[in-house]
Design a protein that fits this description.
4-stranded antiparallel sheet, single chain, alpha+beta, globular
Length: 199
């Protein structure tokens, strides 16, 4: 049976945006396993005493029920360049614990720091994040993500980003790209000049 993940930001003993993680986890359990009974993560996660200071990833592994909860110290990667890689077959619309297909694409990054995955001619995601593109006025995110990340969904809901079709041919209309995920939003996401995207 497939295992699924939720990764939750824990900073100085506080868990962030649990409602968005609850929603995705329960939607995944319903779609993949046919389970309608919902789980509330807040009732299952106890933050260890040694994680009350600093930045951690709370990693929840689950199937029908929660199988494992662990806290991992987190440091941000420096990402200054991206390599476009193409794969029309990859499916990661649910947050699977098995990321081997993504890992194989990541290994094609050559001398860049990360990848942007192109599927069916459209920009989707990086290795671990949803991209957001800045045109000088607004932030835009591809309407063709592999995974609808919780940070992406929250920022769309708050009208801080807008979704649209983005292709390799239209990347040049933007000035820079940021990478958002549960651990990084506008305040701490890496920013990459579109000139540092390798085609």
């Amino acid at each position: 049976m497939c295992q699924f993940l939720e990764t939750i930001k824990c900073l100085d003993g506080k868990l962030f945006h649990l409602s968005w993680h609850n929603y995705r986890m329960n939607r995944t359990r319903n779609e993949a396993l046919g389970i309608s009974e919902e789980i509330d993560l807040a009732k299952h996660i106890e933050i260890p005493r040694n994680c009350h200071s600093g930045l951690f990833r709370c990693r929840v592994t689950y199937t029908q029920k929660i199988e494992k909860i662990e806290f991992l110290s987190h440091t941000y990667r420096k990402i200054k360049s991206l390599k476009l890689v193409r794969n029309d077959e990859i499916d990661y619309h649910l947050k699977y614990a098995n990321r081997i297909e993504l890992q194989r694409l990541y290994e094609k990054k050559e001398n860049c720091d990360d990848i942007l995955i192109i599927k069916n001619g459209c920009v989707t995601d990086s290795f671990t994040a949803n991209p957001v593109f800045f045109d000088g006025e607004k932030w835009w995110t591809p309407n063709t993500p592999l995974l609808k990340g919780t940070q992406r969904e929250r920022l769309l809901n708050e009208n801080k980003i807008v979704s649209c079709k983005i292709t390799p041919e239209t990347i040049s209309k933007y000035k820079k790209v940021g990478l958002i995920n549960t651990m990084q939003d506008f305040e701490n996401m890496p920013l990459i000049s579109v000139r540092n995207i390798k085609f």
